[in-house]
Amino acid sequence: MQKNIETKDDLELRSLDTMCVNESRLQHRGYHNIKYLVLGILFGILFIKAEVISWFRIQEMFRMQSFHMYGIIGSAILVAMISIWLIKKFNIRTIYGEEIIFHKKTFNKGHIYGGLIFGFGWALTGACPGPLFAQIGTGATVVVVTLLSAIAGTWVYGYIREKLPH
Description:
Blueprint: H1 2-18, H2 34-49, H3 55-62, H4 68-89, H5 109-125, H6 132-137, H7 143-160
């Protein structure tokens, strides 16, 4: 009996620690997703104009030859920090009035392993998941292999997740 309680508690802790959970109960019609498509297209154009999707820029970053990508990543982190602070300070809600909740995350060694695997993949392919679609949209069709590999890797992780140490 005690083992079942520990397993349940462990699962609850792991779900908060390793997964994003969409707690929204709102139901929308399909056409509401058009706003995400438009925002994604605009974000892709921004990536292209800022040269974030450039394989050469990414290689410069990993070879420590240019500050360009570090500046963009640092700016994104700063904007995220300020945004989270404002959301918490003024109790800002979603556009639908739902409360925004931030869960505490505990650090574990899996973050290091995952970060290293992510970084190696990023360095080898010249692409991280964000700009993959923008790269494909610019005509770099070879990136489809990277996209399919990312999808396969995500599927494999989901399949063996419970067997991995977290």
